[in-house]
Every structure is written in structure tokens, then in C-alpha cells.
Amino acid sequence: MKRSFILFFMGVATCSFLHAQDSHYWTQQYGTRSALLSGAVLGGTNDNTMIYYNPGALGFLDNSSVSINASAYGIGNIRVENALGQQADFESLQVGSVPLLAGGMIRMKDQKWKIGYAFITPVDFSFKGIARLDNDYEVIEDLESPGLEELVAEAGITTKTSEIVLALGLGRKLNENWSVGLSNLFTVRSHSYQRNFSSYVFMNDEERTFVGGNQSQNAEYYNVRYAAKLGAVYRSGNWSTGLTFTSPSINLFGQGTLANNIAVRNLKLIDDNRISGVATARQAELKSTYKSPFSVALGTNYKKGNSSAGIAIQYYNSIDIYDIMEPAPGTFVRPAELAPELQSDRFLRNRAGAESVLNIAVGYEHQLSDAFSLLLSARNDMSYFDDELNDGPGIKTTISSWDIYHFTGGVNLDHRNSSLSLGLLFSTGNTGKYEQPGNINPEDINLLEGSTTITRARYSNIGLLLGYTLYLNRLSNNKEAGD
Predict the structure, then answer these.
(1) CATH of the domain at 94
(2) Domain count, the chain
(3) Is 174 helix (H, G, I), strand (E, B) or coil?
(4) What domain range includes position 38?
(5) SS3 of 296, please?
(6) Among 478, 396, 430, CA closest to 193
(7) CA distance 105 to 47
(8) N or C: which end of the chain has fewer CB within 10 A?
């Protein structure tokens, strides 16, 4: 009896849904002109987005003080086919805005030194989906329940992940060709995840016996970490080349909560007995850890006449699988004598990890007039999701595992003291090998345990980018000239 009960709880505990933009490094780009060029600006551009892209370019900035505000407004759609089987899809349509970057530069007496700050939103992902089945299927053997049984099944996921980065950058111009810099990146990450799964069957016996199982999972935490980015830029003639190294993150502090609750009613075991029971655990104020990898980026920009082009390549190292929070062992199944060997720490497990990825961005700009330019760009955004996170029980909170491709086009209008950008962004990605645990197959005798299937998932997004840059020192210079 104990062995059969273990099999059930392991099956249901792995019925968790994987997450689209929560496993990518290049989902967002920052600033005005830099965002329209998909970040292909490692050789430098004349605003303080260099605090993030390449602090080595800060020493070449012409402006002592710059304030930047940029927002992306988008409509995103994620669909996972057959989330419960039988064409019951998960689909999430989100409309919202993302403030990409706001910051400025601090005026220094020594113009060779440049100090800047920025607030950046690299991650802002939300997903909410519900799939439901309600019909008659051949679920239970005719010896117990002749004919078709009434089945009601439902799965729902709500998740939100956000990160805010405070970047403090320092750059120095060494000579006419070289500049170096360092950015200190403090990242505050918050994540909440809730999943509910239920399946209920009414047997065709005299008692109309009710057989069912349901599960609810919850994980939420915040975390603060630090990383350093070292950069250098070399300029010569029409060429400008940049190189950056970003350290692995250092965990500072954070905490969170994990909960997993399972209930079964009249579940048939291998020995033909039916039992009811629960497995439940919740642990709060757990120390949280979140890691970002070492990365290296190389890019070059070329300008000739009215045209300029850039390319940027960034490699992110892999991260071994680790526990975001470490729950303590404790009683999970009740009555405990049904399966005392099942401990809560195994089913509360919440892990993360990353495979190595290589992303490439290309951008092109054509100056139509002194004040007006056209910009086009494209980039890939490879998913760092590690398939080994699918193995074993626990709370699995990642939704996306597919690669995304971004395309951007827009215009930039330069004024005497400011710059205004307007652009359109389109992103798309899909996979035919999406691993979907918790699928309900009415033809499977182990219906309530769910099964893992390979299905198709699709992601698309269309957005509007609005960017504005204000060059404060130009205002000051003009005012002094007027006086």
C-alpha cells in the first residue's frame, strides 16, 4: 500500500507547468537609439546607456549630464497547445508597458572621468493561463464503472517575475583612442508563482463514487545580488570596438516561501484498494539565492558618410543546477503511516540553472538629414533553460524554453538639447518539442497521475518603443552663452 501511494504522489507532484521571457537574457534592450539598434552599440554611443552596455565607452561621452527615459508598450501572446490534452490550450494575452531605463550622469571637474547611474528593468514577465476539460470519457475499468465516466479537469497558472537593476558606472578616457570603465550592478529580483491542478471523476456505480485529485503549488521570493561589468573601447578612424566582461553574481540577501498541497479521494492503488489522503507542506522565511552567469561581449561599430552599422556578440556561461531556496525535511503525507519516507523538502524543491548561450545583434542606421535618421536591427535571444530541471518532483516555475527572435525598426529625431525615438518591435518564437507535464489523457488508466507529453508552444509580441534623451549640459552651455 505504501509503495502505491508513493507512486501517486510522485506523479502528481511532477505535474507542474514550465514557463517565455523568463529564460532569456536579451528580452529587453535599453535607452532610445540603443534599443532601436538591438544593443549593437558596444563600440559606444553618445548617451548613458553605456553604463549597461559598455562602461568603457563612458569616457568618450560628450555630455556631462544626461537624463534618459524610455518605455516599451507591447501586446504579448503565449500559447501552449494541449495543456490538458484534447485541445485544451494554455493561452496568455498581456498588454502593458515596461520602463526600460532612466538615469543620468554626474558632472565632473576632470572631463576625463565620467560617473553615471541608471535604473534598468531587464525582466518584467507575467503569465496567466487556464485550461479546462468537462466531458464524458472511458476512465475507469468497466468492472467497477461500466460505460463512460464524467470527467472534470482544470489546470491554472499565474506567475510574475520582475527585476530592477541599479547601475553605478565609472569611466575614464585614457587617450584619443582608448577608454575603460566599470559598472556596479545591483539587481533586485522578485518572483511569485502559483499553480493549481485538479481532476475529478464520478463512477457509474450505485454510490456514484467520487474519485479525484488536486494540487496547489506556490513559490514566491525576493533576492538581491551584485555583479561587476568591466569594459574597454578602442576608437580609430571610422571604427569603434568594445569588449566587456561581466562577473558571476554575488548573492547578497533575500527570502521566500514555498508551499505544496496535494489531496486524493478514493484513489485506486495497485492492490485494488481505494484510499483518501493529503500531502501538504509550507515553509516561510527561507533564505533565497539567485545566480547570474559570467559573460563576455565583443562588438564593433562602423560609420561612413550617412550610414553606420554595428554588431554585438555576447556569450553567457552555464550555471549548474542549484536550489533557489532550501526547505527543511518534514512530514509530507498524512496520515503519515501511508508513506513516512516521503519528506516535504523533496516536494518543495525549487531549482534553477542555465545552459550556456550565444546571442548576436546587428543594427543599421541611415542619416536622412542632420536631425532625422532611420534605424533597423535584429537579434536572437536564445533560451538558457536547462532540460534537467524537468526531472524529479518539486515546484518548477519556469515557463519559457524556446528561442526568440526580435526585429526592430524606427526613427530618431535629434533636437538641439534632446533626442526623441519612436519604433516598432516584433518578437516571435516557437517550439514543437515543449515538454508538458500534467497532461490529461482520457485513454490512460492512470488519468489522475497525469502524464508528460511533447507539445507545441508559441510566443509572439508586438510593441511600441518611445524614447527620450535630454542633454542637460547643452542647456547649461546655451544659457551661459545667452548671458
Answers:
(1) 2.40.160.60
(2) 1
(3) coil
(4) 2-482
(5) strand
(6) 396
(7) 9
(8) C
